[in-house]
Specification:
The complex is a heterotrimer of chains A (546), B (203) and C (384).
Chain A (H helix, E strand, L loop, with lengths): L1 H6 L10 H14 L6 H6 L3 H29 L10 H36 L7 H9 L1 H11 L26 H28 L12 H32 L13 H18 L2 H15 L6 H14 L15 H29 L8 H24 L1 H7 L3 H31 L5 H28 L13 H29 L38
Chain B lengths: L3 H13 L8 H32 L23 E9 L6 E4 L3 E4 L5 E8 L6 E10 L7 E6 L5 E3 L4 E10 L9 E10 L1 H13 L1
Parallel strand pairs in B: 1-9
Antiparallel strand pairs in B: 1-3, 2-4, 4-8, 5-7, 5-9, 6-8
Chain C lengths: L2 H25 L12 H34 L15 H29 L7 E8 L2 E6 L4 E5 L5 H4 L17 E4 L4 E7 L4 E5 L4 E5 L5 E5 L5 E7 L11 E7 L1 H26 L5 H20 L17 H4 L2 H10 L15 H13 L11 H9 L3
Parallel strand pairs in C: 1-5, 4-10
Antiparallel strand pairs in C: 1-2, 2-3, 5-8, 6-7, 6-9, 9-10
Classes of the chains: A mainly alpha (546), B alpha+beta (203), C alpha+beta (384).
InterPro entries (chain A): Cyt_c_oxase-like_su1_dom, Cyt_c_oxase-like_su1_sf, Cyt_C_Oxase_1, Cyt_c_Oxase_su1_BS, Cyt_c_oxase_su1_dom, Cyt_c_oxidase_su1_bac
Main location (chain A): membrane
Catalytic activity (chain A): 4 Fe(II)-[cytochrome c] + O2 + 8 H(+)(in) = 4 Fe(III)-[cytochrome c] + 2 H2O + 4 H(+)(out)
Chain lengths: 546, 203, 384
């Protein structure tokens, strides 16, 4: 623990001097920290270890969820049923969604938060290290339970990641109980993670690190953490109601007992819409760190970035109805939700304009993180614009539940959230390992991903507009050509991630050239003032921020 | 949380040291309160939604309790057509038909219609009728002083019955609505009702 | 990274995307873009969609022009020195206000279209549309016509044993028929889970919620055959419940309705005639196999083994081997709280008799039981 190591050092040294911090690191290793082997990882309370665990877990889940996407794309390669049965296909789409949302994107952001927030605000660790350990270690069990349900009689959840009642209640298989249990655990894990982030940011900032000096990644995560606190309990309540409706005879969502299936959708999307911002706000933070570094220029409009993030978070609570335009909502509510949803594009637009303005008259260079960041800005904007189209209620009657929607949310979540995570990993990996990663592999990874992801998701707009519904295992003949291309793009994107895996493994073996503490020549911030690799303990004496 | 005073406190405590572990209990408790609050709020959405629907009629459900007829003027100038649709949910074997499939009414005027039900099976069944009105706003202005949907409807094997429904349309009904549809879906709730009575007996 | 290759890759990508998009607009081919459809509303929706599309393209072009210009000109490798500005109140206010104005410009026509969709005038024809796993049921409220509409594509085509025909997965045994030039009102509801009745050519997509009714309407301006699908995930065969609507001239429509009413009457007479007849085991088995394949096999599987944990097996099950009245009852009444629906409306009594006989004598269920239409009648109406 932090306090024990503190006693070994006198308080006089300056944390800003690198050699002192480095000696901390060596001392700790030799004297009283870090047991070796599995127990090091099981018992660790170190924010960097836990961050690493989160990131590896997210990556493994990304590959597992990706493998399910490969099954889906293989089945959809051509019309007809050839590889899997419809019931299994539905399980694949459901579990793919759940794993990517709760197993890949959210834990990856939590991992980045664990690693970087203490370094960025000059804190020695997260505020609640033991809870931090718990919040990670319950996560693998949640996903083991979810995955094991696939092997139960009757199969796993097959009702879509949105689990609309009554398909998930009266008409689901018994493994729904496992699904509910595993979502509860995921929720508890997320809430604990969010508590830790909030408490750390509130209480552990270095002297002089006022709120309006915090890096944007920290700001966006603070707001994300509040969103998590606000909506994960709502998800927990929703799955609880599904559980009692299915097994204990309540009728929250059953018309026969006075319930209403549409109520489920209100509750679910009250959680679900803030949830999608949970998956994109930290991405905004990451891009706001990277673009200034490689433009060698301060972020344009820092304050407006913070306010825009806050505005997006607040708006996320009043737009849930746009997922439900076809449920038979009265016209005045449709118009309200349409306007509210369109409003979201104002602060989001401000962000994009700010990034472009940051690049404007900068001194731009194109290192790997910057390439991912630029791809993010372009492709996320495409996803954002199709989102704007989806907000238009009459047009949404045509888009809703088609591949147009699938294209939209994969543009914002894959080329948005996931590209930002990759950008972040490339940006901070040299800081974590002390070595520059294999740039050739990284370039291969970037270009293969960029091209294939567009072959994968862009034609989905067309098949969606032409009338292909989502979540179907087989389709009419006029969609065949595009689906072939989509599948080819899917396989290529899947394979491209193996390059990433190889690169990460190489980096973890500490191969490559050593890097300076600043790593990138335009990088600014506390995390670049500590040595590379980042010592096991950092900022035990708080740095002074001016 | 963003005021400067608080900032100063935080800064001081950070200064004083990471040496003495900070006490985060207060902050954590506040957040936990928020978590518990949101969990309860989600459950509170259930009754809130019912209230909201009652006020706005967004889901087309009619009142589950009998309305009291307040003598109002009958608006002879307007004629509203009410369609009746009867459905039985799957697994519900009863015959269920509306004796009047369509009726023209004046707002404010009392009307009585009847529905025929028959249980053709050889077991006793308890039914619950669930009403739904389209367009949903019309549900707000449909006042039922008597309806079979207010109670469970038990029928013995082979029994048949006429179930009455007495209603009037509120003269406040928006001008643009000239017709609406009232659907009743019959559900077999024998099992759940039986279970309840068993529960009561056990208590 | 060499910058020139970065730019060239990016522009190749952009050109590919734009050419797809351009093709979508120019050719108007239905497998690239939304269809304008065949009603006034659907045309409005199409125009709205295209307006939104062009506005989004314009926004994208403006933003990316600035970005790419900056990427080309303000490069470190070209010796660009970073400027020192990091805020500008005027610019920031402008780019908050301008999008706001664009939004209003887009939202106003959308709101008007939406209000046009809320037409509450009296319809000429009302159809009650009921979704259930995995078929649609249509009931004409003003006529004595109602029927189920199920997928007509053969299993062989789905299983890749037969060549797929043109309307693969978009064909049904009995399409919905409506007159042109009349206001048609659809009342939409469901028997089990949530479905969604989607007809792209009418720009109608409305959820079918169990226990509740939703409304939609259209006025089709040209005769033809229009195809759509269920749009809300509704279980295993969600992808296999298409919607086909045939729009006919009013005179032809009236003739069709009269014909349907006659057919319904004949079917009732036939049903009465069959009640007094006994069919042979062979007849029952061959008809039963057909009915089973069309109606039951989706869940209980062609081999009667079901899907363990989801749909129970019939092969070797107590229900199909012992209790005949129980077996009939579950088909006629369904089983509340499960996926097993009532088939009393969808199948005739002789069809139920055949399928019960089939299930009791197929796949090694060799009970030798023969069930006749009058046995079904006895259970359904409690009379011999």
């Amino acid at each position: 623990m932090v306090s024990t190591t503190d006693t070994t050092h006198s308080g006089d040294h300056d944390a800003d001097t690198q050699d002192h911090v480095a000696s901390d690191h060596i001392d700790d290793h030799h004297h009283h920290e870090a047991p070796y082997g599995i127990s090091r990882w099981l018992l660790t309370t170190n924010h960097k270890d836990i961050g690493t665990l989160y990131l590896w877990f997210a990556f493994i889940m990304f590959l597992v969820g990706g493998a399910m996407a490969m099954v889906i794309r293989a089945e959809l390669f051509q019309p007809g049923l050839q590889i899997v049965e419809p019931n299994f296909f539905n399980q694949m789409t459901t579990v793919h969604g759940l794993i990517m949302v709760f197993g890949a994107v959210m834990p990856a952001f939590t991992g980045l938060a664990n690693w970087m927030i203490p370094l960025m605000i000059g804190a020695p660790d997260m505020a609640l290290p033991r809870m931090n350990n718990w919040s990670f270690w319950i996560l693998p069990f949640a996903f083991l339970i979810l995955l094991s349900s696939l092997f139960m009689e009757g199969g796993g959840p097959a009702f879509g990641w949105t689990f609309y009642a009554p398909l998930s209640t009266t008409y689901s298989s018994d493994s729904t109980a496992l699904f509910v249990f595993s979502v509860h655990i995921m929720g508890i894990s997320s809430i604990m993670g969010a508590i830790n982030v909030i408490v750390t940011i509130f209480n552990m900032r270095a002297p002089g690190m006022t709120y309006m000096k915090m890096p944007l990644f920290v700001w966006t995560w603070l707001i994300t953490a509040f969103l998590l606190i606000a909506v994960m309990p709502v998800l927990a309540a929703a799955v609880t109601m599904v559980l009692t409706d299915k097994f204990f005879g309540t009728s929250f969502f059953d018309a026969a007992g006075g319930g209403d299936p549409v109520l489920f959708q209100h509750i679910f999307w009250f959680f679900g819409h803030p949830e999608v911002y949970i998956m994109i706000l930290p991405a905004f933070g990451i891009i706001s760190q990277i673009v200034p570094t490689f433009s060698r220029k301060k972020l344009f409009g820092y304050a407006s970035m913070v306010y825009a993030t806050g505005a997006i978070a607040l708006l996320s609570f009043i737009v849930w109805g746009h997922h439900m335009f076809t449920t038979g909502m009265p016209v005045e509510y449709e118009i309200f939700f349409m306007f509210a949803t369109m409003l979201v594009s104002v602060p989001t637009g401000v962000k994009v304009f700010n990034w472009v303005a940051t690049m404007w008259r900068g001194s731009i260079s194109f290192e790997i993180p910057m390439m991912f960041a630029i791809a993010f800005i372009v492709l996320f904007t495409i996803g954002g614009l199709s989102g704007l189209m989806l907000a238009i209620v009459p047009a949404d009657f045509q888009y809703h539940d088609t591949y147009f929607v699938v294209a939209h949310f994969h543009y914002v979540l894959v080329t948005g959230a996931i590209f930002s995570i990759m950008a972040a990993v490339y940006y901070w990996l040299p800081k974590w390992t002390g070595k520059m990663f294999d740039i050739t592999l990284a370039k291969w990874h970037f270009w293969c991903s960029l091209v294939s992801v567009n072959v994968l998701f862009f034609p989905m707009h067309f098949v969606g507009l032409a009338g292909m519904p989502r979540r179907i295992p087989d389709y009419a003949l006029q969609f065949a050509d595009f689906n072939k291309w989509i599948s080819v793009g899917g396989f290529a994107f899947g394979l491209s991630q193996l390059i990433f895996l190889a690169l990460i493994i190489k980096a973890c073996r500490h191969q490559g050239e050593s890097v300076s503490s600043q790593v990138w020549d335009g990088a600014e911030g506390l995390e670049w003032e500590i040595p590379s690799p980042a010592p096991y303990h950092t900022f035990e004496t708080p740095p002074i921020v001016r | 949380m963003q005021d400067n005073k608080h900032d100063d406190e935080v800064d001081k405590s950070a200064h004083a040291g990471v040496r003495t572990p900070l006490d985060h209990t207060k902050t954590v408790n506040k957040i936990l309160l928020l978590v518990a609050g949101m969990f309860c709020f989600a459950f509170a959405l259930v009754p809130l939604y019912d209230v909201f629907c009652k006020v706005t009629g967004i889901n087309g459900k009619t009142n589950t309790e009998a309305a009291v007829y307040t003598a109002t003027d009958i608006d002879e100038t307007r004629t509203i057509t009410v369609d009746f649709i009867t459905r039985t949910n799957s697994g519900m074997p009863w015959e269920f038909t509306a004796q009047t499939r369509k009726i023209d009414v004046h707002p404010g005027q009392m009307n009585e219609v009847a529905f025929y039900v028959r249980n053709p099976t050889n077991r006793d069944i308890i039914a619950q009728a669930v009403p739904s009105v389209s367009p949903g706003t019309a549900a707000l202005y449909l006042n039922k002083t008597e309806c079979f949907c207010f109670q469970h409807q038990p029928l013995k094997a082979g029994e048949e019955a006429l179930m009455p429904m007495v209603f009037y349309v509120d003269p406040q009904l928006p001008e643009d609505i000239t017709f609406f549809t009232l659907q009743y879906t019959l559900y077999d709730i024998t099992r759940t009702v039986d279970k309840d009575t068993v529960d009561v007996a056990m208590n | 990274m060499k910058f020139s290759s970065f730019i060239s890759y990016m522009s190749v990508l952009l050109i590919v995307c734009l050419s797809f998009a351009a093709q979508a607009i120019d050719t108007g081919r239905s497998n690239l873009n939304m269809r304008p459809g065949v009603s006034g509303i659907s045309n409005q929706v199409y125009d709205l969609h295209m307006l939104m599309f062009y506005v989004c393209i314009a926004i994208g072009v403006v933003v990316f022009t600035f970005m790419f210009y900056s990427m080309v000109v303000h490069r470190k490798s070209k010796g660009a020195k970073a400027a020192n500005f990091h805020e500008n109140l005027t610019v920031e206010v402008v780019w908050t206000i301008v999008p706001f104005v664009i939004l209003i410009f887009m939202a106003v026509p959308a709101a008007y279209t939406l209000i046009d969709m809320e037409d509450v005038s009296k319809p000429d024809v009302t159809v009650l549309v009921t979704g259930s796993q995995w078929k649609w049921h249509y009931k004409y409220m003003d006529n004595d016509v109602e029927y189920f509409s199920v997928l007509a594509t053969e299993q062989g085509q789905i299983r890749n044993q037969l060549t797929k025909t043109q309307n693969y997965l978009l064909e049904v045994d009995r399409p919905l028929v409506i007159p042109t030039g009349k206001k048609i009102r659809f009342l939409i509801t469901s028997d089990d889970v949530i479905h969604s009745w989607w007809m792209p050519d009418f720009a109608i997509k409305k959820d079918a919620n169990p226990g509740f009714i939703n409304e939609a309407w259209t006025n089709v301006n040209s005769p033809g055959v229009y195809r759509g699908q269920c749009a809300e995930l509704c279980g295993k065969d969600h992808g296999f419940m298409p919607i086909v609507v045939v729009a006919k001239e009013p005179a032809q429509y009236d003739a069709w309705v009269a014909e349907q009413e006659a057919i319904a009457q004949r079917a009732r007479d036939e049903e009465q005639r069959l009640l007094s007849m006994n069919m042979s085991m062979d007849e029952l088995m061959s008809q039963g196999e057909k009915v089973y394949g069309a109606v039951c096999a989706a869940c209980h599987m062609p081999n009667g083994e079901g899907l363990p944990g989801v749909f129970p097996a019939l092969k070797g099950s107590a229900l199909a081997l012992e209790d005949i009245p129980g077996h009939i009852r579950i088909i006629v009444e369904g089983s509340p709280g499960t996926s097993m629906a009532s088939f009393a409306k969808q199948l005739t009594m002789s069809e139920i008799a055949a399928v019960v006989t089939y299930e009791r004598n197929a796949w090694g269920n060799d009970t030798g039981d023969i069930v006749q239409a009058k046995d079904i009648n006895a259970i359904m109406y409690g009379k011999e």
